[in-house]
Amino acid sequence: MVGQPLINIYHWFTSWVFVLVNGYPARYLTLIGVTGTDGKTTSSHLIYEILKAANFKVGLISTIGAFMGDKEMDTGLHVTTADARLLQPLLARMLKKGITHVVLEVTSHGLDQNRLIGCNFKIGVITNITHEHLDYHKTFEKYRETKAKLILNAQYAILNKDDPSTPWLKSQISNLKSQTIIQFSKTQIPIKNQALVGEYSRYNIGAAEEVAKILGIRYSVVGQVIKNFRGVPGRMEEIKLGQPFRAVVDFAHTPNALEQVLKELKTQKPKNSKLILVFGCAGERDRAKRSLMGEIARRLADVVIVTAEDPRTEQLADIYQQITAGKSGFIREDDRQRAINMGVSLAKPGDIVMATGKGHEESMCFGKTEVPWSDREAIQSALRTQGQSGNES
After folding, report:
1. Whole-model pTM?
2. Which of 66, 309, 338, 356 has the smallest number of CB atoms closer than 10 Å to its CB?
């Protein structure tokens, strides 16, 4: 990317300008940064809810939005870390409102482009590092190095004990005596909450637990939050309109995330029922992951419908060919609403229909234009149109 060094210099300069203009708010805040290929949004929201339950004056900035207490503020984010023009005034606003702790979801793009200059993280969490964004970073090693930037200056580095990248991450900070390395694994808390099913959720909770320990929060508070957690919009979110089958929306847009959610749903579906998947891969993004996701979908789902997901300027036919890699077992329907309609029409009692890749997002990109779109609304429309809904529950 020829212009990327100039972009990074621009962000470095503007970041410092907005840090200084806004009074360097991070100096007076305890910042908790969360990054990783998968699980960073849910982990961020869990940490936020735990701190809130423990009566901390806490704010949250994630890809879903920005929150202070029970108040949500629209940030206009589209799955990325805000640049300093938005981030620093937001931190300053939180500080003015009496916030003392801020949980900040951090992306590799934000770290690479110096958008987080002036954010002094006390705690840095890395949930995992798997295949993603190689269109931007070019190699997995470069992607991993970028993720590591979050913990290089953090007082506490919280790492996934079971992630293959953790030994390398530990080697990067082992000589920094000012830091404490803490490793987490799957939580042992009994989970009876449909919003936190699956092995991946146990890792997200495990990461949140370690943050709570550092901040001196009682175990009982963590357990209560886990029990009552309502989930994150667009993450294993169920659409219930009284239909005799399950309809689920999830943001899974990486090979690891797709495999984890499909494995979990396969364990949940009744015997002889079907798992029907509607998904695609984004245009102008990591092409190498497309065939990986296609193979995962083909292996774990009973019916796979491949459709549009932010194609941007790429041809849907090309994306479809890269996903399927010339193999059979796929249905092509470029129109995402019709694809979801098809998935719903094929569902029988006990089946599971799942749409992945868009999650909470409210738009889809065609060419250079963002058009309104919601998977949640699309499934609701399909259920109503095809007469599958009963009384809303």
Report:
1. 0.88
2. 338
